[in-house]
Specification:
368 residues; alpha+beta; 9-stranded antiparallel beta sheet; 7-stranded antiparallel beta sheet; 10 helices; globular
Length: 368
């Protein structure tokens, strides 16, 4: 069975006013449009053509949530727990109301994520940069007291973890202001793109300690079709651009800056992986089907480029086909072609192969 899925964009403040509208080929609504959800998550299950929502079919059992994401402003810096950490946190907060602003855990699941760029440029922060590289970057900010204090924390016994604790504790507000001001004139050929991105972060989040946390993170620029996988414990934030995102079906987020929302510093530090290192960029292949390898069982994602010739793919259901460009049709075992409008999806519940036809681009999501 093949079921058409659609949804209304969510109007988070960081959302773009144009990117999703342009993708769907319609006039902008005038409001921020941040995410379109294709899943059965209780927060916003996808709509079916008959007026029901997807959870009526699946019972809320989908292991993944597929989204279109469109960022005009930086999202909050955040990190997600492992399954064990989520189960422990969920049990500890059992007495809190679901809408308690101090609640950290919304369920007992982990939330690894994969995002693939749809725009020609998608910017993100992901993972913590090696300290020696960050010390070179700080050279562009001069030798003021705040910058020197940051250097001292980075090279001290606690390294990155204690530096982040200091920045988020409220004891470093003066240093945050001074470092943010130094960004305005900072320049270094090696880091100019990164410094430009963090300047934008600072302009849109004045006085936020997350601005300096962002300075410690890898600045990642994705081109269309490139992706990054963000495992549990990895600090990250999306800055700008349009992408397809898939994640485990969870809403567990621990925030680390760039937000007015609740930040639980001890809990954040307890699940943070402060090991520095790069986040590998997953490259698109030169064949019709590109797989993006991830080391979780909750989801798998493939990109299909169509040039007029049918492409047959094996699938594990429940699987979704999300159209992101051109003209896409999908057929199951009965060979009946279903058109999938750009910005909408199709759910396959009992198929083993799907045939995609047309010209354009689509993404196939399924359990891992």
């Amino acid at each position: 069975m093949l079921l058409g899925l659609s949804n209304v964009p969510r109007d988070y403040a960081w959302g773009s006013t144009t990117l999703i509208a342009d993708l769907e080929g319609r006039s902008p609504s005038g409001a921020p449009e941040a995410e379109v959800w294709f899943g059965d998550h209780s927060g916003d299950p996808a709509d079916l053509a008959d007026g029901r929502t997807l959870d009526a079919v699946t019972g809320g059992s989908l292991p993944y949530l597929l989204k279109i994401l469109a960022a005009a402003d930086p999202l909050s810096i955040q990190v997600h727990p492992t399954i064990a950490q989520a189960k422990d946190g969920w049990a500890r907060e059992a007495g809190l109301a679901a809408d308690d602003p101090t609640r950290n855990y919304r369920d007992d699941n982990h939330k690894p994520e994969l995002i693939v760029a749809l725009s020609d440029r998608f910017e993100a922060l992901g993972g913590l940069r090696p300290i020696d590289d960050t010390l070179r970057l700080l050279g562009a900010l001069g030798d003021g007291p705040a910058v020197n204090a940051l250097r001292a924390h980075l090279t001290g016994e606690g390294g990155l973890r204690s530096t982040i604790a200091w920045l988020l504790s409220g004891d470093a507000d003066a240093e945050v202001e001074e470092i943010s001001a130094a960004l305005a004139t900072a320049s270094a050929l090696e880091f100019d793109d990164t410094l430009s991105a963090i300047r934008t972060v600072a302009e849109r989040n004045p006085g936020d300690p997350g601005v300096v946390v962002a300075l410690l993170m890898n600045h990642i620029v994705l081109r269309r079709g490139e992706g990054i996988f963000l495992r549990a414990g990895l600090l990250h934030a999306y800055l700008s651009g349009l992408g397809v995102e898939i994640m485990a079906a969870s809403d567990n987020v621990l925030r680390g800056g760039l937000t007015p929302k609740h930040i639980d510093v001890p809990e954040l530090l307890s699940i943070l992986d402060a090991t520095p290192g790069i986040v590998p960029v997953l490259q698109p292949g030169d064949t019709a089907v590109t797989a993006y390898p991830v080391d979780v069982d909750d989801f798998a994602l493939r990109r299909v480029t169509l040039d007029g010739q049918p492409v047959v793919v094996d699938v594990v259901t429940p699987a979704m086909v999300l159209a992101t460009a051109g003209s896409v049709t999908v057929a199951g075992a009965d060979a009946v072609a279903h058109a999938v409008a750009v910005g909408t999806a199709l759910l396959a519940t009992d198929e083993t192969t799907l045939t995609l036809s047309g010209t354009g681009e689509a993404f196939i999501a399924q359990p891992g």
